[in-house]
Amino acid sequence: MANQEIVNRKIVLRDYVVGFPKESDLVLISNEKIKLVVPEGSENGVLVKNLYLSCDSFMRDRMSKDCSYISPFTPGEPLTGYGVAKVVDSRDPEFKAGDLVWGMTGWEDYSLITRKDPLIKIEHTDVPLSYYTRILGMPGMTAYIGFMEIGSPKKGEYVFVSGATGAVGQLVGQFAKLMGCYVVGSAGSKEKVDLLKNEFGFDEVFNYKEEQNLEAALKRHHFLVIYFENVGGKMLDAVLLNMRNHGRIAACSMISQEHVQNLILVVTKSIRMEGFVVFNYYQRYQEFLEFTMKYIKEGKIKFVEDKAEGLESGPAALLGLFTGRNIGKQIYGTYEFGKPFVVPLLTLFSPSVSSGRMRYYFLL
Amino acid sequence: MANQEIVNRKIVLRDYVVGFPKESDLVLISNEKIKLVVPEGSENGVLVKNLYLSCDSFMRDRMSKDCSYISPFTPGEPLTGYGVAKVVDSRDPEFKAGDLVWGMTGWEDYSLITRKDPLIKIEHTDVPLSYYTRILGMPGMTAYIGFMEIGSPKKGEYVFVSGATGAVGQLVGQFAKLMGCYVVGSAGSKEKVDLLKNEFGFDEVFNYKEEQNLEAALKRHHFLVIYFENVGGKMLDAVLLNMRNHGRIAACSMISQEHVQNLILVVTKSIRMEGFVVFNYYQRYQEFLEFTMKYIKEGKIKFVEDKAEGLESGPAALLGLFTGRNIGKQIYGTYEFGKPFVVPLLTLFSPSVSSGRMRYYFLL
């Protein structure tokens, strides 16, 4: 088995992207054969078989040569991103064949991981493995650090979440409700608005695409104290106008390229805006895991994800993130463990179809 | 004396200002006569004779009807601002005739103060009274809270101060040196640059008007960790590009109306930007006074101020703030205590003349 050569398919970046990425910028190639052992010379290497790969918005930035805060992808090489994988072979004493792990891996069938930052062993397998790409992975940590640490919520405070159906946003809203806050969300379709109100318990939700005036929309839901920033640009300007004195803004992303003009309000309203990169907080993963597993076991957190199957569906899934087509987190599984759950003991599972694509909808 | 009526001259705002203010927007009027007693019906009123009035940048915003964060001035009424004054009569048990005070007062010979927030009794009279409009007043508190509290400096960190010869900026730079930081400043003339380097001990200074590219100018002095924000706009954009991860921005003002386009770097560099309004921190005045008096007594802090004499010189003095003409803090004294020092026991006093205007230069 170890000496047998098998094809290792990859999704590679054709060339650096200028402007909006297209599906054709990503190519599936199948011309590499590998042996399922960590090769000689790869000290501490860990060879994994990828099970779930995650589509995240920061991956778009990495397609551009000018990406400033993280290294761009290399044309001709597979994309890298968060995923769940099973160890096939390991020269690292911390991992052994058969271990389940999550962390940074490649968009390919098998990846040789040499930079294990983060690569975290999965201990709880009584939840779907795909959770480690979202509620128990990077988006969960992002929501936790951004809201609980930087937002410093107090009971009764008003919280606003933009991009609220996103993988991070839906968790921030639910963490906020669990902390006794009043939660306002925005999303870009009626379906998403309904989901936030009816399933996630947001107190107020508006469809930003239907608002002529974001400032006025937020004024209806005023007294904002905490803003979980996903968007930037005009939305940030509108939030600043409607924020109370001593408000806090936790900024994990700013998708918009628009300039910001109301920043003077940061001064006059004594607002604290703090950016953070979740990568710097993985030393606190255990603390986060305990916090979140408790609510998962109590059935107090819901999660919606989008899922596509097969490596070949990756490019379309990733680009769907940037057009607002997806709800929740976009993940896709490669062929082994093709069924949604490794250990299917969840309490409720309600698949629904939207926009012609399968959407899995979990109540934990 | 108390029943004698005397003329109370005032500088009033002619009408709300649109665009850049002109001297003619401010008018000296001399048609009011008052008695030097707190009038009947003014419970807890304090009548003061103004000695020093301070020109501050926020006063420009108050000339506009659309000022959002503080009430605009009322046309026909005297301007209000920070000043040093002597109590003439008081119905407030905390103050008695003869007390020296600093706080919010009017641009007039005498003011009836009914809203005593802040109105602080002056205890140390072994420094020039005018200090309470600057190093021991609002600008001093602003530098202290912004730099020491929000900036959280650590020894060896790189600090950048824009508008560094301003009343606040020159103190921030010196506090930073006292904390063992490396201090970079920007100012708008060669004279100011020399002053910062030669007298205030800044490690690096550049003239932002001579720089084609602010980003490149800052890159020469990179590794910024703390930015004391006075300017906003393009300067903030350039700072964001040159800031290290986990940098801190203490924002006490943003004069520029330019939009900001590099805010995404707040996220990617994990920057904390916090605005503050010194008005909310006066409960910590005693702590600040002890901290600063110690350095003043040890001769470790220098201060430059601009001074003009007579109420009638107020409009030109205030407008000079917005054209970069002034160095340090613009104050002007009304007729009593016309000499610069009430208690002239300071160690060094070096008047110099620049731009045809008297400039007082103190080494404490």
From TrEMBL, chains A, B:
Pfam families: ADH_N_2, ADH_zinc_N. Keywords: Oxidoreductase. InterPro entries: ADH-like_C, ADH_N_2, GroES-like_sf, MDR_fam, NAD(P)-bd_dom_sf. Residues 167-291 form the Alcohol dehydrogenase-like C-terminal domain. Residues 9-116 form the Oxidoreductase N-terminal domain. GO terms for molecular function: 2-alkenal reductase [NAD(P)H] activity. Gene3D superfamilies: Medium-chain alcohol dehydrogenases, catalytic domain, NAD(P)-binding Rossmann-like Domain. The keyword Oxidoreductase applies. The keyword Oxidoreductase applies. PANTHER family: PROSTAGLANDIN REDUCTASE, PROSTAGLANDIN REDUCTASE 1. This is Uncharacterized protein. It comes from Kingdonia uniflora.
